Amino acid sequence: MIRNFLVFSAFALVCVTNAHADFNYPNFASTAGLTLNGTTTTPVTGDGTVLRLTPSAAGQGGSAFTTQQISLGAGASFSTFFQFRFTNPGGINPADGIAFVLQTVNNNVGGAGGGLGYLGIANSVAVEFDTFNNGPGVGDPNPNHVAVDTGGNLNGNGVVVNGQSNCANNATVTGTPNCMANGDIWSVWIDYDGTTLQVALADNSTSRPANIISQAINIPGFLTSTSAFVGFTGATGAGFENQDILNWQLVQRFAPINPTVPEPSSWILLSTLVGLSGFAYKRRRQAA
Taking Cα atoms as reference points, which of 113, 93, 87 lies closest to residue 242? Predict the structure, then answer.
């Protein structure tokens, strides 16, 4: 009976993390359904098994996309939630950032430097999370901004994250509130209802704040489709950082996600439950 209760409890905890989403990667111990490219790996960290788009080294570029195109909802609608963490910044400054990308070119793209591994991907829409100021040539207003990009171009018009634009100094960025390169866990919500793209992000929280971006856009027009390869790109240049995606949920329609992300203590509880389950089973067999 004890063993059955423990197994059920562990199973229930996993099931809670899989609510709300059409597909869900609570971590990346399995990357089934994804194709990893360039420098992208799946190391085990304190956050579990993560999707590391780039290591903390110069001139890196990686991506991870669904292996097959997925069908989006009416008007290419969708909702997604993921968490990222950027750590171990080095070089001239933390750099360069990541992008969430929908594209119909192929599932094997990636690059380096200020292009974020996205530059040049036609038939695409991306939301970039940029930690380096490459200047007005690529539309960067500061080293801590979010922007919507289309057609493989970095369109600029970046929005400063939570009013904090002074995030360029390696010596002080770690721990700086509202800097995406501060080493915290950042939560991201992106939703598209067929007309308007909404983006929200929060530092060390899974409570959704006000949208940082709410932009009218014709996504199926840029994709020329209502299906797409969906995933992430990331890159570094003379500055660098580990760029990790911790988890990812996506709904193939407009249905904003209320995330159910276990705290680290919950993962510890899950491991403990599984371990106790095995221990109880072993005791029963020894007593038999």
Answer: 87
Helices within the chain (DSSP H only): 2-17, 170-173, 219-223, 264-287
Grouping H, G, I as helix, E, B as strand and the rest as coil, residue 113 is helix
Q: What is the pTM of this model?
A: 0.84
Give whole-number Cα distances, 67 to 31, 71, 106, 247, 267, in Å: 10, 13, 9, 17, 28
Contact of 262 with 24, CB cutoff 8 Å: no
Res 274: pLDDT: 39
Instruction: Output the pLDDT for position 96.
Output: 95
Q: Are residues 285 and 222 in the same domain?
A: no
283 and 218 assigned to the same domain = no
Q: Is residue 15 part of a domain?
A: yes
CA 183/CA 273 separation, integer angstroms? 30
Say yes or no: 95 and 38 in one domain.
Answer: yes
Tell me, what's the pLDDT at 247? 98
Measure the CA–CA gap between 66 and 35, rounded to whole angstroms. 6
Residue 264 domain flag: no
Q: What CATH number does residue 24 fall under?
A: 2.60.120.200
Coil, helix or strand at residue 142: coil
| Residue-level pLDDT at 141 | 86
184 & 255 share domain: yes
pLDDT of residue 260: 73
Low-confidence ranges of the chain (pLDDT < 70): 1-21, 110-111, 156, 261-288
Give the three-class secondary structure for 182.
Answer: coil
Tokens 């407009």 appear where? 254
Domain hosting residue 50, numbered range: 20-259
Measured between alpha carbons, how far is 57 from 242 in angstroms, rounded to an integer? Answer: 8
User: Looking at residue 230, what is its pLDDT?
Assistant: 97
